[in-house]
Amino acid sequence: MPEQKQSVPSPTLAAQIQEWIAALPSEGLWNSVQRACKEEQMLPLHSTIIYIWGLRPDGQVLCMDHEAFSQPIDQETDPFKIYVVLKQGARTYPELSVLIPPAPPGIRQCEPCAGLGWIKLPEAAYADSCIRCDGFGWYLNVHH
Length: 144
Known about the structure:
Elements: H1 11-22, H2 32-39, E1 43-47, E2 51-55, E3 61-65, E4 73-75, H3 79-92, E5 107-109, E6 118-120, E7 127-129, E8 138-140
Antiparallel strand pairs: 1-2, 2-3, 3-4, 5-8, 6-7
């Protein structure tokens, strides 16, 4: 898939993203991921069991392996993941919807989880990551 040029937030939106980052809870052991995101100046938008994706005020989408000791962070270049991360992030922060790039060809919203990336288990008090879409809420339909 060719790399897409990411949208750059307006100065107003960049300032808002910075405010959201500053407001992340970072005290205590249970907030270690938010603390790492705050230190890296990225707003967490989506996560799987191993990775968390976030947005910097300059519009870069980053991916952090939050299970690794050093928590390495790389710029995300996969158009599918950039689309999904921004789409998921806009659920919490609707202002980010202006940054969502066009959908990559062949992308489909996951039917079992209705695009959420997780499924509420009837016998449990928690939700589990959707196996069909690997927790993204969307998938590439290779048979379009």
